[in-house]
Design goal:
Rossmann fold, Heat Shock Protein 90, 22 strands, single chain, elongated, 5-stranded mixed beta sheet
Length: about 625
């Protein structure tokens, strides 16, 4: 038996490995299985080059759990190591790079790379690690390396009779969760689901049918429990995959999910290497809940589902897989954010997504429109947050009007231009976020020949603001923000049938009613066919308040601004109200007209609504 001391510049390298390099202890299993995959892949490469004679036989990696002995073993049948290689790779290379790595990043708490020092992550969960190995080389002898998490190790011969390496972890007291079957199964499913070599964890029972027809019988058999899919869809050529294959893979990633709308297969090898499949989920009106569904892999090894440094923010609404060995994973996040390769990857993915959407719109406009209610959130989010995406997608960004018709926004601008251009030469895009609530406003706007859009998503406030800035020459105005004559502002002036004195009297009556609500009373000489009283919410103030709400800010700066607009030319105002000699009855009429306006805005509920209905019956008598 040979004893030795690992040469390290830092005596406390083991505590650093245990506590610092890997904030998440569960990562050890990914590291050790990845090493086993590397050893197996190298063996296959040598065999492919004819450097190993004969059949290499079984190459599956086994995970063996022994609760009684408190050990977890990762067994591969890869190239194995000689005693010299053990000395080199486990004692010299790993530790010189470990020391350098720790020195370089000791002040950076946000290390995300867990690669390169994989083997030593074992000491985060093990009080002792044994490596039993036998090289593929002719005449090689088996050796066992053992270490108890300090610079001392032992190296001795063993009688191992099959090629490959067993890494045996003697699980420490604090980490005994990793002696549970379900915990190991969970980690294998998370980190090893698509590794390129079969990984076996115990056995499972399968039911098979023997015989045919009436004589068929079912029989249960024990089979190897292979936990991974070594040849996932994203590694295949798009030409070799059907729509059903893509949907099946989506189900593999997200079992029991609603099927996706469509997908994009990424496949590029210059100027960087990247493969993957991105799926468009059915978003509907949801937003935040869908994030962190893209999984990042490096050569089929799971890395993270926190991809915001690699994928533009708006694309995190997508689901799927990105696999790239060219994304530097053993560095800090700040480096990742400024890395040139990452920026190129981000730009490539954005372009690919925009091109796919443009192609869908061009090829099948009807099909694209039918998906828009699910796609709209995603496209709008992209247009707001990414200028290059905006430039590519403005041609197929749709808006929907109250009659359920869809238009590309630039085309819609042209459609309503003639009727809805105001005195400032801006095209006014009228909209509602609640068609039922705004029914009377919509009816009045339609009677004037206006068209009304439905913009009812949480993102639409930002979208409108952005489009006003980018598209130019347009302004969005909600149908309840002003009286119908003023939604599209013109220079036309109407005359009031009331004298100035009568107008002052009417204004006073309404101000007395709304004094406690903080509303502003305005008099306007509208058409006699328009509503007698209208409650409006000025666009600018309301929109600013809503934007503040979305950003979680205080509403203090923007009061709930409401205007009560009295139509001085309506018969109920010009005749009934003004000509009523009894002051109390005058107040009653004014209150009734104000409540009628509240009813139109769906502001009356419960007891207040019942009281108004009763008053209406008396009033109409």
């Amino acid at each position: 038996m040979h004893k030795g001391s690992i040469s390290v510049q830092t005596e406390n390298i083991f505590p650093i490995i245990k506590k610092f390099l890997y904030s998440d202890h569960e990562i050890f299993l990914r590291e050790l299985v990845s090493n086993a995959v590397d050893a197996t892949t190298k063996l296959k490469t040598l065999s492919g080059k004819g450097l190993i004679k004969g059949d290499i036989g079984e190459t599956a990696i086994e995970i063996l759990l022994d609760e009684e002995a408190k050990t977890l073993t990762i067994r591969d049948r890869g190239i194995g190591m000689t005693a010299d290689e053990v000395e080199k790779y486990l004692n010299q290379v790993a530790f010189s790079s470990a020391t350098e790595f720790v020195e370089k990043y000791k002040d950076d708490a946000s290390i995300i790379g867990h690669f390169g020092l994989g083997f030593y992550s074992a000491f985060m969960v093990a009080s002792k690690v044994e490596v039993r190995t036998l090289s593929y080389q002719d005449g090689a002898k088996g050796v066992t390396w053992a270490c108890e998490g300090n610079p001392e190790y032992t190296l001795e011969d063993n009688d191992k009779d099959f090629r490959g390496t067993d890494v045996i972890l003697h699980i420490n007291e604090e980490s005994k969760e990793f002696l549970g079957n379900s915990r190991i199964e969970q980690l294998l499913d998370k980190y090893c689901k698509f590794l390129p070599v079969p990984i076996q964890f115990g056995t499972r029972t399968e039911t098979i049918t023997e015989g045919e027809g009436d004589e068929a019988t079912e029989k249960e058999i024990e089979v190897d429990n292979i936990i991974n899919n070594p040849d996932p869809a994203w590694r295949k050529a798009p030409a070799d995959l059907t729509d059903e294959d893509y949907k099946a893979f989506y189900n593999e990633l997200y079992p029991f999910s609603t099927p996706p709308l469509f997908w994009i297969h990424l496949n590029i090898d210059y100027p960087f290497n990247l493969t993957g499949i991105l799926y468009f989920p059915k978003l509907g009106n949801s937003f935040e809940v869908q994030k962190n569904k893209i999984q990042l892999y490096s050569n089929q090894v799971y890395v993270t589902d926190d991809v915001k440094e690699i994928v533009p923010e708006f694309l995190t609404l997508l689901h799927g897989v990105i696999d790239s060995p060219d994304i530097p994973l053993n560095v800090s996040r700040s480096y990742l954010q400024s890395d040139g390769n990452v920026k190129k990857i981000t730009g490539y993915i954005t372009k690919k997504v925009a091109d796919k959407l443009a192609e869908l719109y061009k090829k099948d406009e009807e099909g694209f429109i039918s998906k828009w209610d699910d796609l709209g959130v995603f496209v709008k989010y992209g247009m707001i947050s990414d200028d290059k995406f905006y430039d590519r997608s403005v041609k197929f960004a749709l808006v929907k009007n109250i009659d359920g018709k869809y238009f590309p926004i630039e085309q819609y601008k042209e459609e309503v231009k003639a009727q809805q251009t105001d005195k400032y030469d801006k095209v006014v895009m009228l909209y509602t976020h609640a068609p039922e609530q705004h029914d009377s406003f919509i009816a009045a706007a339609k009677a004037k020949g206006y068209d009304i859009l439905v913009l009812d998503h949480v993102i639409d406030n930002h979208f409108m603001q952005h489009m006003e800035h980018k598209l130019g020459g347009i302004t969005f105005v909600r149908v309840d923000s002003d009286t119908v004559d003023n939604l599209v502002q013109k220079d036309e002036q109407a005359e009031s049938v009331l004298s100035e004195e009568q107008q002052e009297s009417v204004k006073g009556l309404f101000e007395a009613i709304v004094t406690s609500t903080g509303s502003t009373v305005m008099l306007k000489p509208l058409s006699p066919e328009d509503q007698p009283v209208t409650i409006t919410r000025p666009e600018f103030m309301r929109r600013m308040k809503e934007m503040q709400g979305l950003q979680g800010m205080s509403f203090g700066d923007f009061p709930d601004s409401v205007n009560v607009v009295v139509n001085t030319n309506h018969p109920l105002v010009a005749n009934k109200l003004v000509e009523e000699p009894d002051a109390d009855k005058q107040k009653e009429v004014a209150d009734y007209l104000y409540k009628l306006a509240m009813l139109n805005q769906q502001m009356l509920k419960g007891a207040e609504l019942t009281a108004f209905i009763n008053k209406s019956l008396n009033f109409l008598k």
